[in-house]
Specification:
about 260 residues; alpha/beta; Rossmann fold; 8 helices; 7 strands; about 45% helix; about 15% strand
């Protein structure tokens, strides 16, 4: 398959590192003009320098009204919106406060909703666009150690389906991507918080054995493997895929459908 996104502008939230950076790199490699977002301008600059393609950065906190307004002023229209920004962490279910629940929903869900509301109408007017939400296997198999994270990702599946219906017949597709356990810096810290300070290969194997035994891949997924699916969904080749929850989970979810 040859994917050509030349002439398209793609915005990836939370893209200074990890999955977001891998997605942005993949989109730039397919020819898109890519916008990186994040709170740390220095991290964004370093990330942009590592991408071969047309890239610009917008620093700010898009979980805030002011940060969102600044982003929309800098980037009023996009053709591809990848809602990747998210937070996660382990905490016993009965110890999660109301404020923490709100923080997870504000960051993982409502930020994506606000940006979709802002950018989707322009896509519809132009008759072409792609909106994606980076969800998680935790949306389907809620993890006992981070219920609030799992539930926020479950909400994204509903958000994607609902906006896909709002975009019906417009030439705009809206999908969620169910990412499985993925190897990022943040996940390395999370893994070690659960299995201890072992050498990384040992820590990864122990984490998968104890906490993700249903993975058919039996290893963490690399960010580029998630990005490959996102680049495809952003392309004209995926024109008939909308309202879907597409799995890149290494067979983690034990079901034929999500």
């Amino acid at each position: 398959m040859r994917i050509d996104l030349s002439g398209r502008t793609a915005l990836v939230t939370g893209s200074s590192q990890g999955i977001g950076l891998a997605i942005a790199t993949g989109l730039a490699g397919a020819g898109a003009d890519v916008v990186l977002t994040g709170r740390d301008p220095d991290k964004l600059r370093v990330a942009a320098e590592g991408i071969d393609g047309r890239v610009r950065t917008v620093a700010g906190d898009v979980t805030s009204d002011d940060g969102t307004a600044a982003l929309l002023e800098a980037v009023p229209d996009v053709d591809v919106l990848v809602n990747n920004l998210g937070i996660f962490g382990a905490q016993p279910a009965l110890e999660i406060s109301d404020d923490e629940w709100r923080r997870y929903f504000e960051t993982n869900v409502l930020t994506s909703v606000r940006l979709t509301r802002a950018y989707l109408p322009g896509m519809q007017e132009r008759g072409w666009g792609r909106v994606q939400y980076i969800a998680s296997d935790s949306a389907v198999a809620i993890p006992a150690e981070m219920v609030h994270y799992g539930v926020s990702k479950t909400a994204l599946l509903g958000v994607a389906r609902g906006f896909a219906k709002a975009a019906a017949g417009s030439g705009v597709t809206v999908n969620s991507v169910i990412a499985g356990p993925t190897h990022t810096g943040g996940v390395e810290d999370f893994v070690r918080s659960l299995v201890g300070d072992l050498p990384w290969d040992d820590a990864q194997r122990e984490f998968m054995r104890l906490h993700r035994p249903q993975s058919l891949l039996q290893r963490l997924i690399e960010p580029e493997e998630i990005a490959n699916m996102c680049v495809y969904l952003a392309s004209p080749l995926a024109s008939a895929t909308t309202g879907a929850a597409v799995r890149v989970d290494g067979g983690y979810v034990d079901a034929i459908l999500p």
